[in-house]
Amino acid sequence: MKLLPPEVVTVAYIVAAVLFILALKGLGNPRTARRANLLGAAGAAIAVLAYLLSVDVRNLGWIGIAVAVGAVIAVFAARRVQMTQMPQLVAAFNGVGGGAAALVALVEAGHGESPWTLSVVAVTVLIGSVSLTGSFVTFGKLQGILTTRAVTFAGLRILMVALVLAAVAMGTALVLTRDPLFAIALATVGLVLGVLLVLPIGGADVPIVISLLNAFTGLAVAASGLVLANVLLLIAGTLVGASGTILTIAMAKAMGRTVTGIVFGAFRAGVASGDSADAADRPVRTMDADDVAILLDYAQRVVIVPGYGLAVAGAHHAAAELAELLEARGVDVVFGIHPVAGRMPGHMNVLLAEANVPYESLVEMDEVNPRFKTTDLVLVVGANDVVNPAAKSSPGSPIYGMPILTVGDAQQVVFLKRSLNPGFAGIENELFYDPKVSIVLGDAKQTLTKILAAVKTTA
Q: Which residues cross the membrane (predicted)?
């Protein structure tokens, strides 16, 4: 039974759309991100409620069961996931969104009659399927289930071209014959395309792929809004698709790359592994926590560069406490944040905000780089690729052209690392062999805790 008149539903949809826009705006700043999430959730709740009260709902029991199961899974995942696993969670949820859009389109494929509707169904099925498997391959790379290196093989380009042509043929056949079997075939092709699209992308480019697939999911949702003639779904999908596209371009620009270069680079040429067999045998300068504490005792300007290793070790609270202690002694301390540090944009900002690091202490790359020349000591905690000079000096490197934090300009640099293994991009870091660079091997949290204790004894 329809309980709401169309006018009220329209107003509810407008309110929801405004809340979505305000949420997107708020997510651009750590100070307003928490409130922005609540605004977005409120908008979604209003939209769902307005829709349910404006149509004759059938299969209400099944809908209720699906909502309950989804809610349980979402609450369980949100409470259990660690901060270090947020990129994986985003990738998984993104894939689920794309898959849901594809499933809705598959159901509608059996009911659509006009060529326009079937064309939109074909686009939704294809993009949603690509997003589904592409996102889960990304999840596997981030989780360490799959190799983080770019995976290519002979004939990949030919296979990709054949699959794209097959997708066009399946979509055309769907429109001409109205046979839903072609939609299923198109979904199958899209699932394979998603896997083959992401496998050749590796290393530091993975965060950009997450954003790109997020844009794909938004477009799929927008297309499903056209299929279902639901204006709000169209608006919400467009907002997600547009914001994901803008973020993807901004991240690629921040890394000195192009989106097409990242996605299709491995198809055009072989991928440089960046391996350096000789480097593994070269000596590095190591020190312990007490040595670092002595360096800190003489430093007046310190920059802490956090990376994914800090997140994995859960060392953000120890880093925050060390910074607070040094600042209390009059030392100028900031955190240097690379745009793609961690596994997704804003990862380090969120992590350090959890440790109550003031927002003004989080300094972005463009602002912190000039400071390094006057910095006494840089502590690089669990970061590698974002400070690797190969991005500037090695044209064959997968990260060549990516702007980096120029920590080598500082007077002293200390890496806190679990091992000397290459970073996520699989590239040796020549900075390790610089005479002014030292390395403290071990768990970042334990090392920082020891440094903190040593610094306190020098008070």
A: 6-24, 36-54, 60-78, 90-110, 116-139, 151-175, 181-199, 206-226, 232-252
Where do we find the tokens 């639901």? 230
Q: Within the chain, how many helices (H) and strands (E) appear?
A: 17, 6
List the catalytic residues.
385
Give residue 280's pLDDT band: very low, low, confident or very high (50, 70, 90).
low
The arrangement of strands across the sheet holding 412-417 comes to 362-364, 332-337, 301-306, 377-381, 412-417, 437-441
Q: How far apart are CA 328 and CA 331, in angstroms?
A: 7
Average pLDDT over residues 362-385: 92
The interaxial angle of helices 86-109 and 206-228, nearest 10 deg, is 30
pLDDT at position 349: 82
DSSP string, 65-134: HHHHHHHHHHHHHHHH--GGGHHHHHHHHHHHHHHHHHHHHHHHHTT--SHHHHHHHHHHHHHHHHHHHH
Q: Tens digit of pLDDT for each residue in 257-277?
A: 778 877 776 665 544 444 444
Three-class SS state of 344: coil
Using H for helix, E for strand and C for coil, what is the string for 400-437?
A: CCCCCCCHHHCCEEEEEECCCCCCCCCCCCHHHHCCCE
pLDDT at 409 over 90: yes
Quick one: tokens of 79?
């409470």
Q: What is the pLDDT of residue 309?
A: 83
Enumerate the β-bridge partners of residue 332: 301
**Residue 112 has which token pair?**
């659509």
Q: Are 88 and 139 in contact (CB under 8 A)?
A: yes
CA distance 160 to 151: 14
User: In the chain, helix, strand, coil percent, each to 5?
Assistant: 65, 5, 25
Measured distance CA(124)–CA(97) in Å, rounded: 12
Residue 69's pLDDT is 93
Distance CA 439, CA 379 (A): 10
pLDDT of residue 275: 47
- For residues 459 and 242, the model is more confident at 242
Instruction: Look at residues 206, 210, 262 and name the one whose alpha carbon lies nearest to residue 423.
Output: 206
Judged on CB neighbours under 10 Å (0-12, 13-18, 19+), 160 is middle
Q: How far apart are CA 368 and CA 327, in angstroms?
A: 17
> Phi and psi for 440 in degrees, rounded to 5?
-110, 110
